[in-house]
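Predicting holo structure, S-adenosylmethionine bound.
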Amino acid sequence: MDQTNEIEARFLQRLQQSISDGSFVKLTLSKSGGADKAFKNVYARLIELKGEEALQFTLRYTTRDVVKNHPVAEGVAMVGLWLGQDFLNGGLFTLDEDISIQYSKKRVPKLFFHPASQEAAPPKAHDKQKQYFIEAAGNPYLPDMGVTGAGGQILAGGQRKFRQINKYIEIIDSLLKQHPLPPEPQIVDMGSGKGYLTFALYDYLANQLGLRPAVTGVELRQNLVDFCNDLAEKAGYGGLSFRAQDIYDFQPGRIDMLIALHACDTATDIAIARGIQAGAGIIIVAPCCHKQIRKQMHCQTGMQAILRHGILEERQAELITDGIRALLMESRGYHTKVFEFISTEHTAKNLMIVGIKGKPNRQALEKVDAIKRDYGIEYHYLERLLEGEKEE
Ligand SMILES: C[S@@+](CC[C@H](N)C(=O)[O-])C[C@H]1O[C@@H](n2cnc3c(N)ncnc32)[C@H](O)[C@@H]1O
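Done. Tokens:
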């Protein structure tokens, strides 16, 4: 072991030992030395998580804090990775002594020992505090969106939006664990509106997953596009941009993930079609209103006795619209999942369709035809789009 590694190993051993013998108080890393100049400090404390000791790190960036918990051994290893790379000073505070590791300009570490400055370890917090994917405090875009106040507190009127944003990122997080994106993913959000979810997605991909995403929001309304572009610049989100355009006319290049949340009526079909045409690896849509199929429905089966009630016909039209969307996606090689998302203030509709690129399902089109026959439906708009036609 060379001298540098030996000194780092001694510091990490003291960290591990202080945790084991109960003398650990806290750890801080400072003096940024890595490529990411926005990564300013790390603070660690000991917590109890599901009955096990864990290290809780607060990663301080210029504009926000990110909190992460790690089992002790993993946490100690993380400190080893940061030391000498991202941070050139480390301070370990124990009940016995304070130990610091400091790196010279040539990154040669040295250890310093001082009498203990801390008289007691803080009580080990049970980490019952809810961990959010998107944190309210220090967030650079939520205040302008009216979700949080200047001090980072969630405003009364922003609670629902904050929950929705976090739920959405939670879904994306679990999806991406199974289907990871490339390091520099190209993402398009169609019908991005005021951009709540687009900003949160960018924030999560860039600041939590450490990717270098290029996220484009496409939105008809110029005023929203201007608002979002100004805010992206203010937040320092260089890979996030918005353009005022009808999604129908959007000519995508490569798309790794296509998103369309609550895009009105057939705008969802246009988004799916553009995603399929671009060969997107992941397509995520949360449909909004469903008018196109309902206008055509003339049920040919015994179901007619039920569908004479307007509300039931409306619900059935939604079911068929989204069910056929999923089948058409399958016919084009997407393995689909349909599940409940979360209701929003825009709409009570809370369905999400996720498609992951795989092999085409050859039987899917026959199933679509059978459903169309049963319900007297002439065509589904997505079918037309996939055949290259625009008119309804
Ligand atoms: C209900 S909002 C949803 C906004 C955002 N995706 C969300 O979930 O918070 C739907 C947005 O889609 C936009 N939109 C609808 N049709 C569009 C089209 N053809 N091209 C671009 N934007 C469209 C609307 O202007 C509106 O801002």
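Residues 191-193, 196-197, 218-221, 246-248, 261-264, 267, 288, 346 surround S-adenosylmethionine (CB under 6 Å).
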